Amino acid sequence: MPESNPSGAHRLRRTRILATLGPASSSLRSVRSLLEAGADAFRVNFSHGTPVEQRRLIRRARVASNSIHRDVAIVADLQGPKLRLGVVENGSVVLAEGHRVRLARSPVPGTADWLPVQIPRFSSSRAGDPVLLGDGGIELRVEEIASNSIVTRVVRGGAVHSHQGIYLPRARLRGNVLGSKDRVDLAIALREKVDFVALSYVASAADVRRTRQVIAEMTREPVGIIAKIERAAALDSIEGIVRESDGIMVARGDLGIEVPLERLALEQKRLVTLGQRAGRQTIVATQMLISMVSSPRPTRAEATDVANAILDGTDAVMLSEESAVGAFPALSVAWMDRIARATEGAIDRERFRIPHSKGGPTPIDEAVADAAVRTAETIGAGAIVVPTHSGRTARLVSRLRPAVPILALSRSQATRRSLALTWGVQTEPSPPRLSLDQLRRLAELSCRRVFSLPPGCPLVMTAGYPVEGRPTNLVTVTAV
Q1: Residue among 411, 389, 383 nearest 472 (CA)
Q2: Of 15, 211, 286, 388, which one is the catalytic site residue?
Q3: What sign has the CA pseudo-torsion 72, 192, 176, 319?
Q4: CB of 38 within 8 A of CB of 17?
Q5: Which of 11, 29, 84, 126 is catalytic?
Q6: How many Å from the N-terminal Cα to the C-terminal Cα in the chain?
């Protein structure tokens, strides 16, 4: 369905940009430059840096966003229980094809004959299982399993370095999704009032539930959980993970090692569709514009990769090294913005209008969201205005990918910040206890200011009737 908006509002970018902060973007000036280039949210990677540096990044992101009166989301990305090798002799050893190598728990430096590694249970492996090292370029095959070690044979050799990652795609490891470091980092993030926690190496819905319980014990502030899908085990439990999470991140780095590389694009499409249809915020991440770490211009393949993620319906696209350690942080955001704007007009909106409820009557708020979108597009409205306390109604409207922009009015700054990762939603503050007439006037004034709508342009507005304390149950039409 083509864009049908009588104003300039259609020029607004709908796909959100999540930029990772790091050494290359740590100053207040550089954070502001990322916002000016189009960043909507910031990621702080707790796998790197010190607590002092992490706090500084979060605080500078807040100062920068407040200085330009923007509601920006901050995502604290926890390291998680990633498996790594221990120390090897001289920093690296070469594994030859066909050689037998034992993996064992030990503090002694490893050699070409055995490598130290901490794995929760070696018995979770099976003979014939693959073991991948580093970026997946080195492959071992399990031959024997003992209680404290496994014997493997090198299928594809190469140099192995101290502390490289180790991947067991078929093993069912039962580690704690929140290790001791993660709990310390989580406490720091919550004290700094981040909006989302990105949970690494999620394997099941229970991982998300346990993390939510830990967060509830630490704070009463609303904090969303983004489940990072980067393990093969997560794909087997994906519907439960999506249901328990507030959003999912397609973390293609580790996921591309744990699943066959030729299937990665298909898994990405499936994950984005599952998250989008469930009304969860979806993020596609890892190496989207990786050449821009050292180049001022992305490759053609990277531009195509970003565009395809947008056409699939992702809420957000993420920059990692590009904005954290690259030579062109703001320019990488600007290119992401440019690609998104050029792509969004080609989104097939009808594919997002498939009924979302499986059997039984449609919930009232879902029906209201559907009615609001169809009404807005039928009458050529300039915007859909959604008063919301939790953000749920705005996300329900967003998942239908309307041709017109969405304006969420909320008195909760936490809600407005969380919606910075939701496709197509702009936010404005709203005072409490508004009558329906007052809400209409606020909607008209806000849309005139945010979207530059011309006089007489129709608006579609959802509401709860009566407004105070009621769930969304009404669609009404007004005009600027």
Answers
A1: 389
A2: 286
A3: positive
A4: yes
A5: 84
A6: 25
Q: Is 181 a catalytic residue?
A: no
Specify whether 193 is catalytic: no
Q: Measured between alpha carbons, how far is 365 from 358 in angstroms, rounded to an integer?
A: 15
pLDDT exceeds cutoff 80 at 353: yes
* CA atoms within a 13 Å half-sphere pointing along the CA-CB vector of 81: 16
- Verify whether residue 299 is a known catalytic residue: no
Helix axes 300-312, 329-344, angle to 10 degrees: 50
CB atoms within 10 A of CB 455: 8
Within 10 angstroms of residue 30's Cβ, the number of other Cβ atoms is 18
User: What is the tens place of the pLDDT at every residue in 17-74?
Assistant: 999 999 999 999 999 999 999 999 999 999 989 999 999 999 999 999 999 999 999 9
> In whole angstroms, what is the distance from residue 420 CA to residue 70 CA?
9
Q: What is the pLDDT of residues 393-418, one digit of tens each?
A: 999 999 999 999 999 999 999 999 99
Query: Which of the following is catalytic: 13, 212, 228, 269?
Result: 228
User: Catalytic: which of 43, 60, 395, 401?
Assistant: 43
What b/e sequence results for 422-450 when a residue is b if at least 16 CB atoms lie within 10 Å of its CB, and e otherwise?
Answer: bbbbbbbebeeebeeeebbebbbebbbeb
286 catalytically annotated: yes
Q: How many CA atoms lie within 13 A of 152 on its CB side?
A: 31
Domains along the sequence of the chain with CATH: 13-79+177-345 (3.20.20.60), 89-167 (2.40.33.10), 351-479 (3.40.1380.20)
The pTM of the full predicted model, rounded to 2 decimals, is 0.89
